[in-house]
Amino acid sequence: MIQFKESSLARVNEIIARYPQGKQKSALLPVLHMAQVEFGGWLDVPVMDYVASLLQIDPIEVYEVASFYSMYNLKPVGKFVFEVCQTGPCMLNGSDDIVAYIKQKLNIGVGETTSDGLFTLKTVECLGACGYAPMMQFGKTYREHLTKEKVDSIIEECRAKAN
Amino acid sequence: MGRKLLLEKAHVEGIRHFDVYRREGGYRSVEKALKMTPDAIVEEVKKSGLRGRGGAGFPTGMKWSFLAKPEGTPRYLVCNADESEPGTFKDRYLMEFIPHLLIEGMIVSSFALGSNTSYIYIRGEYDWIADILEAAIAEAKQNGWLGKNIQGSGFDCELYVQRGAGAYICGEETALLESLEGKRGNPRIKPPFPAVKGLWGCPTVVNNVETLAAVVPIINEGAEQYASIGIGRSTGTKLISACGNINKPGIYEIDMTISVEEFIFSDEYCGGIPNGKKLKACIPGGSSVPILPANLLLTTAKGEKRLMNYESLSDGGFATGSMMGSGGFIVLDEDQCIVKHTYTLARFYRHESCGQCSPCREGTGWMEKILLNIENGKGKMSDIDLLWDIQRKIEGNTICPLGDAAAWPVAAAIRHFRDEFEWHVNNPEKCLTENFGLRHYADPIHVPVEKN
Amino acid sequence: MADETKTIKVTIDNITLDVAPGTTILNAAREIGGDVTPPAMCYYSKLEGSGGKCRTCLVEVAAGSTADPRPMPKLVASCRTTVMDGMVVKNITSEKVKDARNGVVEFLLLNHPLDCPICDQAGECHLQDLGYEHGKEGTRYQFARRTFKKEDLGPYIQLHMTRCILCYRCTYVADQITNKRVHGVVDRGDHAAISTYISKAIENDFSGNMIDVCPVGALTDKTFRFKNRVWFTKPVDAHRTCDTPGCCGKATLWLRGDEVFRVTARKDPWGEVQSFDGKPGWICNTCRFETKQTSSWTIEGLTTISRHSVVGANKYKTLEKPNETVQKVMHGVSPKLLMDIHSVSDVNKPSIHLSEIDRAANSNDFKK
User: I need a labelling partner for C347 at 20 to 30 A (CA). Which of B21, B263, C86, C334 fits?
Assistant: First the structure.
């Protein structure tokens, strides 16, 4: 059965308390973020239904929202997700080369996951790090001023973490 | 170098933490504000001439004075930290390095507007910055600057951080409010404006991070002092996030009297173009404002030096000028392809369209496809006119400004760089391997030689 | 202060009228009727919150009000803009509006499959009408049209997402008329789609009303699917005593002979469900899908059909012509004739009423 751990449930209630009575739907985005972290990095239908029941809203309201925002994964992803920015300023600084290099290095296309389930490569639109381009989102933080060497070391870092 | 009002202390060791921030003079504006009346604060902000730093440049004091105040209905202040305009990364810097400045500004502003619960809506990708803000809020609360009866004034204020989840459109204030209510980020149809019906149907003010931070020096030093910095209706200082092909990308706090030329080429700011290359073009205010070729960027059509401020950057309208926008300053050197750059922006806007209204939903994707064709040497001459017509039919006809934001870059690229588009069409193979280059957009002024 | 009988003046395409405060420009224009009424693809007066999205009803406000006569800088959605006293609105008298509307029609048709020949909505499709009246011949779109994964919504409703213009009306129906919404708009931008996300059947007593509000053929009646063309059927108004709470029991039956091919709610001249006693006349799924015998209904008579509608073709002997407004507002210019068949053909002269001939018409009838 899908259920948040105790500490997460407490956090959900804390978040709901930020809004006026009856406006608990406002907690949807933060709670979906938590669910994605806690339940395998993506939002499966039962997970979304669980969130709906927690917030006392209809499941479709959760599907509508989850499918609107690009940070929610509606399909399974690898353990490590590389989200490389490719918008204007990053493009000016060679993001295309970085994407091509990761593709070649991991032997996957954009939107794909390596067969060992470790890496997923995504291209994303502007992440607000234009001055530190090229860059990618990696978990909670950004990796900036990317070079091929930096990509290599990030991949190594992941592999070490996975073992 | 001009005066710094926001980032002066940003690099003091430990400034992220309350104790250091307070020791450096933080939270003085709250002390001062709590002894003023809310109306007096609004008046002060009006007098300062502060204009919204999110992009539209609307006078902040005026926006505040529109806030409806019906009896018995709560009012809300929401900070727009959904910074996502390509080229813009200034709010991130401010929140990451000196989070208490935003919190201080929000307490003063909440008091002025009568908001007892205020929210910071931060873009979801700034995950670690949300943590920094939450930690800072906890510190502020612990020290009696948030929560019940702040500093014995009788004013209660709670401040919460809410993360978005990846949607540029949520930077539009009504889409942001929808998102904060746990819905899809579809912009609302206005009127009613948020000042009358905003968050949960209550009167709401939505302000950019930098705007709210600027309230701190305004209260500390007084509106007149603030208004004395800058020029004309561009008062105070402005954060510019510079990126693209420059030697020193980053955040610069400028007073709005310096010239664009100085900003790009002086060592104090961008430090010129790398590898001795020439300036080709620049988008001075975030991706949605019109791109300008070097000649029109550095001087206005009247032949005057263009300055880094609201009036000068928009001098000449869209025909020969651009906009200050959000301060996202994107520089393109001589080797950059305008068609490709415009294509990536068109792709961005297609990706970020909410899909609610038809011109934007259908038009952005159409423009993207045509631009990709031209970029790949598969374009027709008629495609250029078609692009022009599509952008014209999107602009002004949509619910929110995303339609305009998607139309303007395409329009300006064609307006100023039409021959580059035509070159792509006429040279379908060459354009895959070569660049159009600089041609007559070469900067007409002397370019300082790069220092080693 | 609150004088309920007070009205305000608004001028639309040179016609001035008095309306109640709070009236939208669109509804004011509907009071005038005819060509000055902007087309509306997403607005639905009986659905709260609808409108503003399709942008077909954009109009120019040449003067905001008597108090503030400045023009509005942008075209506004007439369905969501309330009139002010002394407001001056230009619809068909504005070149800007015509140009913008032309663009909107092109955008709406951009990814539309144009599969009218196999679409059940053909003949009563608002997008067809819109394209016919405001669109251009041909498309400038040179790319493959958008497609979607097929989704089954259960035994009653057929979803063709490719035809959808995302008016959101069906989601408002689900929110406001049914007791539980299981479908909505998922995804975003040019891939936003009407869906239940989990391919769930929509089961609800009033779900059929989603079909009635759909302006295009995105949601059609599965029990009527491919059975007939609407213009071959004869619509009659009928009622029955229905015990579903909330169902008005008043419907239009679409007949061929004595066979009921389809049941719909009754529509007003704007294509919306008619109101009875001030309440929208929604009907339940039992009436709509399960009551297809004429014996179950009390037939009141022929349904009034717009003279422009193909549904009325050759069914009526005389026509009552509505008030023509075009000449009045266009300084004597005649309404645009889309095609004057009589200038090129001897067939079907205006003087000949086919319905007066008591046998099948033949070529001799046209030679008269």
Answer: C334
